Amino acid sequence: MLCFSAQDYPYPSQRSLTFARRGMVATSQPLAAQVGLDILRRGGNAIDAAIATAAALTVVEPTGCGIGGDAFALVWVKDRLYGLDASGHAPQALSVDAVRGAGHTTMPLYGWTPVTVPGCPAAWAELSRRFGRLPFAELLAPAIELASDGFPVSPVIAGLWQSGLDKFRAVQAQHPELAAWFDEFLLDGRAPFAGEIFANPAQAETLQALAESRCESFYRGELARTIAAHSERSGGYLRADDLAAYQPQWVEPISLNYRGYDVWEIPPSGQGLVALMALNILKGFDFGERDSPETWHRQLEAMKLAYADGRAYIAQPDCMRVSVADLLSDDYAASRRALIGARALEPHPGKPRAGGTVYLATADGEGNMVSFIQSNYHGFGSGVVVPGTGIALQNRGAEFSLDTQHVNCLRPGKKTFHTIIPGFLSRNGVPLGPFGVMGAYMQPQGHVQVVMNLVDFGLNPQAALDAPRWQWLGDKRVGIEHGAPRSLAAVLARHGHHVEVAHDLTSYGRGQIVLRDPVSGVLCGGTEPRTDGHIAVW
């Protein structure tokens, strides 16, 4: 079993490994974790806890997620893993010609253009409908209270809030549609300080409307009409018909067997396939010491090759020119592995045979477990807030290409390449538990490192998250955290990597892990030291 036989990481941690028996909620914000635990204590299951926690996170961590974002989930219930894709599609009025006609040569990051149909509220409602136990309104009540009464802002979130303000100030003159964000997400024109109380009454009212309608209001009710009217008045592409047509999709998770453990991801258009491709390359090597130059070099090279393929081939499933099976075939992995030598590569896609985010993990005493992730993409998202609602809309559409020959080219009604990915581990059909590392393109890189820390290097969940991380930054550029051994940077440079030592750790992912002992049922978990991470236990 991964958890109980694993060793600690040799560097000091501020958190110890956490155990529980009846329930566990691991998140990046303590108040949200407590919300999930309270739901478990009231008789809810892991799915109820995940929904309540996710709703609370839109309030207490708006720097990474919001009501106007997307979501994905992997849910283990009754001996089976289910996948939910609640990512949104491009509005019907949004096209390459429309974007180019507005003077853009690439998809912009802010304003109405990158806004896609939000899937987050639909994810909450659908999870509750299929697997929840408590009344839906009861699950959103804690988030409503936090938004209405206010909450003390946690330290890391305060820093990210200021960063978001700085970015929006820089583009405010070019995007008048950002005005409502400045009205609803600041205190006297500034970002809240750590420990300062922030309330969002408008968001509380919106959450109340979602609670009463099981989120129908957002897609086919009064909120939908409010969102569409604001879009039409202020130059947006989103319309009522786009919202009304939206439904989340149940999907079959994809997996790779890595040294006897099944690693599960959401299928494309999510980038979880990138993590599986990298692990498929890496399983052909034998690894000894974790923090050796050879280990990090091989991991980085495998990640580069997987990402090159991911960017070239991953898209909405009906637009992909290569199948998932082809990209995960052993023969193709071997051909990519053969490219890894002593020197750093410039990554290029191969030719297989044709054929600001939050993450949370919950588990209950009955064996149900949820790996859940939701995001507004970049920080607060597009900067567009529907006035009087507290709804901050995502900028996921920034991932679309305007190259008509690209697999991820923008098309009305299409879903873009998606960065947010939940993960899950099992072995021989027995669930071990959820894991995830949020943070844009760091996510599959974090998944690979966490899985290898657990499986190859025998670290326990907390130690697996504490360990210093690497990150491929593009071309031959790689980043390593300042906690890594100093000798690594020098040796990696001699291998041809362009090494950057990072002191700001917020860009190296923020993860959570919950694992369940198959025999005793005891839960053990780890939470992220790079944020205000917390595990609430029962």
TrEMBL record:
Instruction: Extract the Pfam families matched here.
Output: G_glu_transpept (PF01019)
Instruction: Name the InterPro entries for this protein.
Output: GGT-like_enzyme (IPR052896), GGT_lsub (IPR043138), GGT_ssub_C (IPR043137), Ntn_hydrolases_N (IPR029055)
Signal sequence bounds: none
Write down what this protein is called. Answer: Gamma-glutamyltransferase family protein
